[in-house]
Every structure is written in structure tokens, then in C-alpha cells.
Fold:
Amino acid sequence: MLKRTPSLTEQAKLHIKQMILDDTFVDGRIPAETDLAIELGVSRTTIRDALSRLEGEGVVMRKQGAGTFINEVGLQIKSRLDEIWSYEAMLADHGYEASVHILDHVIRPAPKDVAEALDIATDTPTLEVKKLFLADGKPVILVYNHIPAHLLSGDYTDGDLQLPVYTFLWEFGRQQINHYLSEIVPVLATGDLAHHLAVQPNTPLISFHEVGYNDDNQPIIKSTSCFRDDLMRLRLIRRQIIK
Amino acid sequence: MLKRTPSLTEQAKLHIKQMILDDTFVDGRIPAETDLAIELGVSRTTIRDALSRLEGEGVVMRKQGAGTFINEVGLQIKSRLDEIWSYEAMLADHGYEASVHILDHVIRPAPKDVAEALDIATDTPTLEVKKLFLADGKPVILVYNHIPAHLLSGDYTDGDLQLPVYTFLWEFGRQQINHYLSEIVPVLATGDLAHHLAVQPNTPLISFHEVGYNDDNQPIIKSTSCFRDDLMRLRLIRRQIIK
DNA sequence: TAGTGGTCTAGACCACAAA
DNA sequence: TTGTGGTCTAGACCACTAG
Structure:
């Protein structure tokens, strides 16, 4: 019934999610795990893994002894903070036409805070890129990226800077971002920031201060982002973890 | 070796985490899953589930073909946004002496926004509680909770309002909060807010606008919280989800 | 009491990394 | 080549919910 690659679990997840979106389960109830396993021709374990992922995404809820049910509220939410990987995709999920402007880029010695975050010596040459994301032409996210120059091959063009940062890092540095460690910081839109995001000065904004790590747990990028809250409201599902 | 309840997986998780904290694995490398399974007397599946949870908490990193390694950076972080369940516990995790002040509480008809969020008729009697959390005596979180009065038995005292909200809801309403759906909103500290949190007026702050749902996916509480960023910096681990 | 999800096992095979 | 984590199976038993 299903082939390998991507994993059976992932395929089962997508299959079930599609059935949900197609209103296959009219009463909001999802078939029993054993039934799904038979229907998709995989083991119950695989189905359970798939349902666990969907539960984590807020798509379904499970109740022991009762069944598994569609989570209508969770199904609607976009821009989950913990699922953002590229701003391009995030804006597209919202139905916006996303575009990117490179406002500035330069290689210069790393200032102290950047050097500390990236665990490099102060003054190590670092690529600094200032990007503005637009949604349907309206400015919505302003991003500063700092990447140690020695990680990059250097043969990129100005146009390449418009690539999603994880693509850029892979193409020109053979680096993969495994995860980000992010701090959420409130800021005031002053001068430059207010100008680029086209908001009134002293508007309160959310910013991310984050460091991206590669598969070897080495910091490879420092990133600071500011969001226009009215166009891009950040959301999150919080659960109790005790089990 | 291990008993049931809590689950073997959870016990294995805690056991491994404790070994990590005890510096049992001096080189930052965690034994192979099969070895851990033998050592703890459980199946490899159980060990894998335990390690998956630790990976989710940022405690370890896994590399296919290479091994499982301690994530020193992730091990340090506190106040992970997606793991907050009670502010009392969160403050305690930070090493603060936590205390709670009930600033105000009243039962009155639900205003429009509360009624909509809780899916009840406008004017439904609703308990409104205004709480201030202090860390080592310093004000740090201001919370407004709204709970429909008909969910509560009503025989609580003023002192009971100081209980963590999930305890209060269980004791006096037999309701369990399954999850919250939260929005992260930037705000300015004006008047009342600035006063209670003891910050300068117009300081930018992070606020949560959230709704708590019970096991039947019914909204049972609307909650708004504001944080003093200097005392309580919110953090998050973001991963790529493709698998 | 019947049916559901929750936990756990033992074992198989695969993909990948390091020596 | 060896050893690691990644995926998947088939089956067992438990805990819980609902009729």
C-alpha cells in the first residue's frame, strides 16, 4: 500500500491528515488505531507514531479508553512559534505573497556580543546581512544574520543572499542548522526599525534573539528578528508534560 | 530493576538524566541504546522513547551512525516557553523564592472578548482574578484569569485563589486543563501594569493571551499574563520538523 | 463488558558515521 | 567493516471510558 521513503510513519501522518481535511471523518472521530493499521497496511506502532505527531501539531486529541478526535481549534492555527523554520514558508502558510529585500550586507569583524554567541574570537570576520521580509508588499519581519566568514566559501553573489538562510548555509558553507536556541525579547520600534517596518516610533514589538547550531552542536549563526505583530501574530500550544 | 508507575519510559528518562547530571558520562557521550537497555533491564524501545523525550527537552542530541551526546547548551536553559505549566514552578526552576498576591477578584458578567474566547453567552457570570507573582519579593508576572462561574462549586475561600490555577480548577470545578492555545503579544507597560510590575511607563513587555482547554476540548479558562523581561527571559528551542 | 488508547517487549532490517 | 541510531513489525497486556 505504502512505499518507504519518506518513512511509513510520515506517510501515514500525511494520509490521515489529508483524510481529516477531506472531511472523511464526519463526526470528528478518527477510526481506532487497529483499524487504521489494517486500512493502511502497516503496524499499529506506525499508526501510533503518526497520530502522536499529529497530536503534537495540535491536529488531533486522544483520550485513553475513548478514542482519537479531530482538534478543530488546533487545526486552524498557523505560525506556531515552535514550528517556524523559514520565514518564507511561514508567510506562505498565512496566505501571503512573500518577498525578501536585502537591505544591507557586509563582512566585518564580529562585535563582542556576536563573537560570544558564536564562540569565536572578537574581530573574526563575519558576514552580516540585514533582510526585510514583506507580506503582500507590506514589511513584516526585519532580520539581522551574523555568520562567521570562515564557514563560507565566498563565491556567492548578492542575489544568493536572498535564499532562505538554511539554503544559503548549505550551498555556500556545507553547514546544516540542526536547531535554534531562541530568546523572546520585547523591544520598542525606534528609528531604523520603525522606519523599515513602517510602524509608529515606540510601537512595542516582539523580537527573537537566537543562535543556530549545526549537527555537531557548534554555533554557526546568530540571528535577530523583529516582527510586526499586527501582520504576524505568533502562536503556541502549551501542554503539561507529566506522564 | 525498575517498577511500573510512573511508566518505565519516564523512569528511564529520569535515570539517564540523573546520570548526565552526575557526570557519569565524562566524555559527553551516552552509551549505546542497546547497552542502556541491558543496564536498566528494559527493552531498547523503552530506552529510545526515553532518549526521544530527552532530545525534545534539549538535554541530548542524537546522530545516526555516530551516537547520542549530551547537549550542554540545552541542559542549561530554563523557562522554556513550551514547557511552562505553572508560574510557581517556573520561578522555582529559576531559583527564585516565588510568592503570589491576589490583587483583585470578582464574579461579574463576561465581557465580549472573554465570552467569545470561552464560547459562552455574553454576560455569563465569570470569575475574574488578578494575580501578581513575585520572585524574591520583586514583581515579575501579572495575570488575569477568567473562569465561567458555572464551572466552579463556589465553596472556595479567598485563600484558595492563591493555589496554582490548575489545582484550583481541579479542586473546585473537577476540570483539568489539557492544553493552552497561546498568542504572544507585545505590549507597553501603561498605568496599572507599570505600577504593579514596578517598571517605567511605556516599557515594552511580552504578554500571553491564552485560552485553556479541558480533555473534552472545551475552553474553560481565558488568561492574560505580562512578564517583566529583565527577571524572566523566555526561551525556546526550535527544530526543523521534516523527517 | 466491549472497545479504545497506553505501555512494553523482542527481534528484524536499514542508513549512516567513523575507524 | 563495525557499531551506532532509525524504522518497523506482531503481539502481549494494562488502564481507562462509555454504554
